[in-house]
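Example 3.2
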Amino acid sequence: MTWKFSTKAIHAGQEPEEVTGSVNVPIFQTSTYAQQGIGNHKGWDYSRSINPTRTALEVCIAELEGGTSGFAFASGMSAIDAVMRLLNPGDHVVAGDDMYGGSFRLFDKVIRRYGMEFTYVDFTEADNIQAALRENTRMIYAETPTNPMMKLCDLQAIGGIARDTNAVLVVDNTFMSPYLQQPLDLGASIVLHSSTKYIGGHSDLIGGLVVTNNDEVAESIAFHQNSCGAVPGPFDCSLTLRSLKTLPVRMDRHCSNAMKIAEYLSDNHELKTVNYPGLASFPQYELAKKQMGGFGGIISADLGSYKRAAAFCESVKLFLFAESLGGVESLLCHPVSMTHGSVPPKVRQRLGITDGLVRFSVGIEDVEDLIADIDSALEAVRAVETSEAVA
């Protein structure tokens, strides 16, 4: 029997425990396992290498992404780092020019020091990627939607380019989750997540996940996961499994709330821009409908200036001003001073990451309360501007 997504999220890799019948995978809080003799054990030897709670999570995420192998890591950044270890000195990567600042920092300040080369281009046009390819290009690295400008890339088109050039297409699927987008079905070889975000969903864990459908890639990721040891503990794996069970219902609510807020924001002429793939005015709206099962819970909007953004961020009450995203509670972020501080100012300006840009991670609260909170914060911005004008 082939299960549908929500059934997989609850059951894949999570059969009742054999000894007691526990319906939840136990937290195997152990570092090591008793062996029966030299070279004789039950498949478990040391928890950096393998742990039953982690294995259940890895089986489940592989099923949800339509891959053959899944791997859990201690953070999203350690997951990306493991993927980059597929490269050798002299290898070239074509990467999207609009990405999470931490990913750019890893590539530019760490990985590049070991002889890898990076070219950053606008992934909204596949021709830009084709033009950036070199003989030594080994990887194409994409985020879609991007953080924080919400730009999309055509995964099917880029997958074709990767296939024709024997490059590995890696897709950061954090913003969408496997419920809304499955890059492996569209031509990617590797999909990764910061499971801290929507997959974890409750702002109570840090984690990363990698899934692939390529046996050679899987062998390399497994080797580096064990050798470098950036693995999550069993308790965090258990929390992530708990969260996966409710991923579909949470994502449906994130999407519906974000759509209503994006429409509200787009009707407000005080904002310079509103970036959300679900708006018919969004430049890549048709592509969003084609390759995504929903439009997600992230919106970015430009308030026009640093002063306006600062007043807004200080005035919200329900939207907590904090790093991260994807939790059940709504969060607000100022990318220039928070997530994208490591991106050079000239690059930020070119991408539209201005001092006035804010990013909304829309939670699952009652949407009327969230809109009222935004409206109140905008009133506070107007009051500040009025008092300054009078002064």
